[in-house]
Structures are given as structure tokens and as C-alpha cells.
Amino acid sequence: MRATGTRVRLTYPEGFTGIYSGELALQGTAEQSRLSGEVRLVRGVYSKDIELTSLLGFGSREYAGTDAELLPENVFLEVGLVSHGNVWMRNKLVQVEARLDLHVGGELVQPELTGRIELFEDGKLTFRDVDYRILRGSLEFMDLERINPYLELTAETDVEEYNITLHLEGTLDDFEYPLTSAPSLSEQDIISLLLTGQTLTELGKS
Asked: Nearest Cα to 37, choosing from 83, 85, 2?
């Protein structure tokens, strides 16, 4: 059985609305089948407000409770999900466009997500009440047990004569976010500058 869709609108997961085109094929028997094909995300917007720190420990490859009970077992997945752009995240945390090349495998009741999402330059990230310009960023999905991508993101902001760079790197449950500046300052001075507009030395003189 084959199904073709053109500009189909779907709101899933919560907070994300997408328009999709593509072709899927379901082959097999009632005991075991495979769903395969490629879906193109023509346009998408994720608008649900989140905090970066609230994502710690997030992600599961199983559906919860009654959701899983409604899905048939032994339906295996081989589906590509691609987009060359026009996919947006617009909320209090970030405003940025992205492109993606993802693969959905595993079973329908326990899907496995792999692939890459790449962020476009010049988006905006708000981290700890500071606005940054996104220079580059990506999420690599490699964990087959749960949705826990490896994040790499570099963003910058300017305070007085200082250019401050934030580098986020790691998985959502274990990431680091060092700060550097030009001209060079200690991380304590950078934090003081971001919070008060002055370095620790300048605060000591005032």
C-alpha cells in the first residue's frame, strides 16, 4: 500500500506545526510490516516556550501510557525526513531557521531517530537573560535509546567594547557552556560584565 501527500498540515509534537509532502509505502503482513519512504518538511514552526535547562534528561524512544496501547506492534520504520530550510524555532529561548536530514528507524512503538539538524547563521539565542547572535549550530541525533542529541552552538554578544562568545557543547543531559571574550577577560569578569555591564575590577573601583 502506498500513500502520497502534498502540503499536508500536521501539528505534532506539541508546539510544532509542519507542512509535509512525500510518499510512504507499507509492506508486509498483519504480523509484521515495514513503513518506508521519504517525507519533505516544506515549512515548520516550533513555538512552544522552553528553557534550555528544562531539557535536561528529556527524551524517550517509547510512547507513554495509552499512546503506546493505540499503536500496532511489529511495524518497522525506514523513513527519511528532510528539509533544506524554512523550519523555524520561535520562542523565548531561540529564534532561528534550520535545515534537517533525519532518519526514523526502529519500531512504531519504539522509534529511533538519527541524523542532523543544522542551524542557520544570524538567529537569536536568549541564555540566562542575555541575547546572543547565533554564528553556527547543530544537533546530531545518535542515541538510539532516547532522543538526546549532541548539541554544538556558538553565539556572540557585545557589551561595551567587549565581544563575548558563548559555546554550548554536549548532550542535553550533560553540556558545557564556556564563555570567552575579545579583549580577553576571565570567565568571572565576563559573567560580571553580562550581569552588571562592568567587570569585577570596574565594580571594585566604583
From this structure: 2
